[in-house]
Amino acid sequence: MTLGSVPPKFKVSIDRDQCMDCGRCIENCSYGVYRREGDKILIESRKCTGCLRCVAMCPRDAITLTEKPIDYRSHPLWTREVREDIIKQARSGKIILSGMGNARDLPVVYDHLLLDACQVTNPSIDPLREPMELRTYIGKKPSKLKFRKTESGDVELETKLAPNLKLNTPIMIGHMSFGAISLNSQLSMAKAVTELGTYMGTGEGGLHEALYPYQDHMIVQVASGRFGVNIDYLERGAAIEIKIGQGAKPGIGGHLPGEKVSEEVSKARMIPIGSDAISPAPHHDIYSIEDLVQLIRSLKEATEWKKPVFVKIAAVHNVAPIAAGIARSSADAVVIDGFRGGTGAAPKVFRDNVGIPIEVAISSVDQKLREQGVRNEISIIASGGIRSSADLAKSIALGADAVNIGTAALVALGCRVCGNCYRNLCPWGIATQRPELVSRLDPERGAVQVSNLIKGWTDELSELMGAAGINSIESLRGNRDRLRGYMLDEKMLNILDVLPAGV
Amino acid sequence: MKTVKIDARGMHYTPLNQKIRNAVADGAEEIILDNVLGQRFIGDGLRGNVRIIVNGVPGGDLGMFMSGPTCIVHGNAEHAPGNTMDKGMLVIHGSAGDAVAHSMRGGKVFIKNNIGYRGGIHMKQYEVEARPILVVGGTAHSFLGEYMAGGLVLVLGIGKDKAMTDRGIGSGIHGGEIIIRGEVDDFLLGGGAKKFKFTESDLERIAPIIKSFCEQFGYDAAEFLDTNYTKIGPVSSRPFASKYVWE
Amino acid sequence: MCGIIGFIDRTKSRMDGSSIKAALSLMNERGSGDGAGYAAYGIYPEYADYYALHVFFDNLGEPKKKVDELLQQLGEIVHQEEIPTTPQPGIKKVHIPWRYFFKPSEDLMSGKVASEKDVVTYIVMEVNANVKGATIFSSGKNMGVFKASGWPEDVANFYRIEDYKGYIWLGHNRYPTNSPGWWGGAHPFNLLNWSVVHNGEITSYGTNQRYVEGYGYKCSLFTDTEVVAYLFDLLGRQHGLSYETVVKALAPPFWDDIDRMSAKEAELNKAVRLTYGSALMNGPFAIVVGTENGIVGFTDRIKLRPLVVGENGSRLYISSEEAAIRVLDPEVKNIYTPRAGEPIIGRFIE
Question: Which of A148, B66, B130, C203 could bond to A469 as cystine, CB 3.0-4.6 Å?
């Protein structure tokens, strides 16, 4: 072993004076950091992922966790990460896989956008006491209405509306499949969105029968592997999403390792227990935009044109013209997933290097659709690193109709973003199929937490809108007039079509 | 038997499918579609046991998401007949385009003549009753059974010197089997695919399928009931797992 | 900020501008002396078939040459002159107000450009966005806008407003925050026969602006009110919606009200909100719009700005303050305040 071992990522220690020797750390750590030998709890720091389960469960706050207890000689270019990746590949000769979203310290455009508020020339609105409308309809809208006079002289609507999803708040939960995450995670979120009057995605994992009671608030996904897809599944969903790509790994397929294909996962996906579930890179019935049209229409035809069909793409360089093509394709919404989008597992080189930020993607897509006169043809749903109600408000002001959250919802369930989702050992019961770990997540309590998060953001969005003198979400959408750029270069300001602060 | 005739001349697929659905709801056991030309999605998402006779050339995605019916086409089929099909049967008295039986999960697709590229791609099997079967009377182009995760692809090569002459057979296959009449050159196999000996017990297993195919198209099944086949399956159920290392 | 007034005589009996001046001046507490303006309909009967283009020129050299060229290229100038003015101590004449009577050329009406009105709209957008030193601030038929920086009575005297007789009058007394001293920023804002006077501030401007710009309008006058004229032109003319429906789109009922409506009515209102969500105007406003067929007054959905309506026989008055109406017509009857978002429409009686 000429390479030897790399320094441990964490150093775990127990304050023996505080410790009451209850053993909760041992019980809770699924990675095997703690073990009992005699009357002592021993620690193997190298196994620690930083999931903080032990810290959360220690009744005495006796555990201390230090990140990078031993670091490499500092170097701005040859960072610790770079060196360790090289060592790993020198050892294995393999592609490095990683979990969660883009982990590079790149500037966040949201953090350089500032929102507006009213002073004097118009009144702020108090959303607790005056109407505040966040209701959002997702789907195709007519570009204009036609009316006709009836014989009795009444005016009657001639235009027929396409099916739209009604959201009470412009926050949905994106697609995280049963398989990637546990059934209790999906159940928690399903209960929350049903209570709140919004929607979540099934991911490409089929629809487990435990979720049938919430199916009116679930968007079923058709991805390249077509796992769990049949006519019953399509008919159960409130809408259907075709997944072309995702922000964490644009241009490549997915792979659920056989270990995660438990009996229940196997039922929902309609594949044998323990078999790998491989989603091809492209849909092999879509090699061109007209093929996408064909898939959309086949789904609509199968469900008798009653369901909106969404198309999800990763935000890649050419996202705007691609979205414009999708707008002409019979799709009802385009979901754009920025390069910070999360994942259970993706090749690290993709996660950290491929795609563009969601902020600029929203901006250029909205602009392109308007230029081509097709903005009303399609709703824009933005996702990929939405962390707060501020990100939400800014996304809508840039032109999105609604956002999908993913990681934020998982954090509401307990996730501490340790990034080890692929190991099937998630001690929070989220990204695992092990029954003893899954049972740690109580769907009733999980639902309350997710619902609390969305309620909190919704109230904050109302307050932000009220402060800006806006009482209906339509008037925030695409209202870049109410954004200012702070420390953004001129080119970026032009792309975002926002003025710099002070102007 | 209750038969309904529909003249599909110049009809868009949505009203055509609507008529088919209505006929099924009215208890039709056989539906004859005349003058079909290019209408996509015939039988899309359709359930039941109805028999649909298509006279003409249907458009792409024939029988997509179909769950039960039998559809017999007197003509060729275009792109991806049997796409993500669940149950039932497609019988094509002619040839078909690319991605035939794409992601098919159950039922049978019988093609009398040839198919294009990527036939049987990502077919998958779940439990015994859901086992997709694609039988091709003639030959198939490249990437036959790519990504295949379950089910059976059978190529008979009727009228050909060699049943398969195109590359990439079973590329990335991790479940199911591809059975080809006669010998297959090694260089035609895709990554992750491997030849297995075709045994008497294999023949016994596929004999009913061969018979059923021959019955549909008026061939003498006896000609095909020997062990002169090549069986191709996955090297492993995780052919590319060794390419990756975790962070 | 700002005081507004609107008047219509539904029998088209005309009234000169002296009393509208008096009524607007009564509301000087609402203004700041930085802008006032009038729109009058029925004032050019001798040129009723021609578009009256009122233009602010910075000088009569290059800007005028460019406008002349554009007009000659796209139609015929039947008559042109400087708009008669009388110097006022309170007004610094920073622009030369000019008027053309113009007919778009018939042979331009085929192909891409659909109508005379599209040609005139194109001219207005082109000049205002791209010709430096020229702003077309009025472009309707048999009507005209007169506006400048100054108090209402000074602006009226400057333009000799009492010399014009109209059956619709709009007036606006401005308290600007955005572009004081810029004549183009004074109200009314006009396109074709749509003229808008507005009290308030539109918080949805960015959304509305992006929406109309998608249809070829260019917001180039630095004031939010401009977009209202284009919204009326887009929805009222291009989409052919009734005035009631336009107001429903701009100041729609709340969703919870819609939820309580009959299924059919709810569907209609939902369709309006879904289709015209980007046209919805937010923030405080009271607006009167002059049109080909009458006037339309309405406020924002939660009534953040005042609006009073009065009637007397064939005459309908809409204003920020009742007192202004009583100056116009001491005998006025039936004074009331409309509900938020309720359209007040005065149409000509044929």
Answer: C203
Is cis: bond before C188, omega within 30 of 0?
A: yes
Residue B78 has pLDDT above 70, yes or no: yes
Measured between beta carbons, the chain C residues lying within 8 angstroms of A496 are none
Give me A294's structure tokens.
């064909």
Dmax (CA) of chain B: 63
Closest to C206 (Cβ–Cβ): which among A131, A159, A479?
A479
Asked if C2 is an active-site residue, the reply is: yes
Of C34, C7, C31, C36, the residue nearest C187 (C-alpha): C36
Residue A8 is given by DSSP the state P
| Complete domains list, chain A, with CATH | 10-94 (3.30.70.20), 166-475 (3.20.20.70)
pLDDT for C56-93, tens place per residue?
999 999 999 999 999 999 999 999 999 999 999 989 99
Best of A220, A266, A276, A417 to disrupt the B interface (most B CBs within 10 Å) is: A276
Min Cα–Cα distance to chain C from A475, Å: 5
A/C interface, count of CB pairs below 8 Å? 118
A205 touches chain B (CB under 8 A): no
Give dist(CA B30, CA B16) in Å, integer: 15
Give the 3-state DSSP-derived string for chain C, with helices as H, strands as E and coil as C: CCEEEEEEECCCCCEECHHHHHHHHHCHHHCCCCCEEEEEECCCHHHCCCEEEEEEECCCCHHHHHHHHHHHHHEEEEEEEECCCCCCCCCCCCCEEEEEEEEECHHHCCCCCCCHHHHHHHHHHHHHHHCCCEEEEECCECEEEEEECCCHHHHHHHHCHHHCEECEEEEEECCCCCCCCCHHHCCCEEECCEEEEEEECCCCHHHHHHHHHCCCCCCCCCCCCHHHHHHHHHHHHHCCCCHHHHHHHHCCCCHHHHHHCCHHHHHHHHHHHHHCHHHCCCCCEEEEEECCCEEEEEECCCCCCCCEEEEECCEEEEECCHHHHHHHCCCCEEEECCCCCCCEEEECCC
Specify the pLDDT at position C222: 77
ipTM higher than 0.85? yes
What lies within 8 Å, CB to CB, of C243 at 6+ separation is C236, C291, C294, C296, C343, C345
Domain boundaries, chain B: 95-236
pLDDT in tens, C245-281: 999 999 999 999 999 999 999 999 999 999 999 999 9
In A16-101, beta strands by DSSP E: 34-37, 40-43, 63-67, 95-98
Would you say B190 and B144 are in contact if contact means Cβ atoms under 8 Å apart?
A: no
Q: What confidence score (pLDDT) does residue B218 get?
A: 96
The pair of structure tokens assigned to C223 is: 């004031």
Fold topology of B95-236: Pectate Lyase C-like (2.160.20)
DSSP secondary structure string for all residues of A451-476: HHHHHHHHHHHHHHHHHTT--BGGGT
A window 313-352, beta carbon within 8 A of B? 347-348
Q: Confidence class of residue A257 from pLDDT cuts 50, 70 and 90?
A: confident
Question: B161: how many CB neighbours lie within 10 A of its CB?
Answer: 7
What domains are there in chain C, each with its CATH number?
A: 3-47+151-347 (3.60.20.10)
Binary contact (A471, C282; C-beta < 8 A): yes
Q: What is the pLDDT of residues A264-294, one digit of tens each?
A: 998 888 888 888 888 898 999 999 999 999 9
**Closest Cα in chain A, distance from residue B40 (Å):** 8
Pairing of strands C294-299, C344-347: antiparallel
Q: Which residue of the set C2, C36, C145, C281 is catalytic?
A: C2
Chain A residue numbers touching C282 (CB-CB < 8 A): 469-472, 475
Q: Which of A96, A272, A276 sits opposite B126 (nearest CB)?
A: A272
Read off the pLDDT band of C111 (50, 70, 90).
low
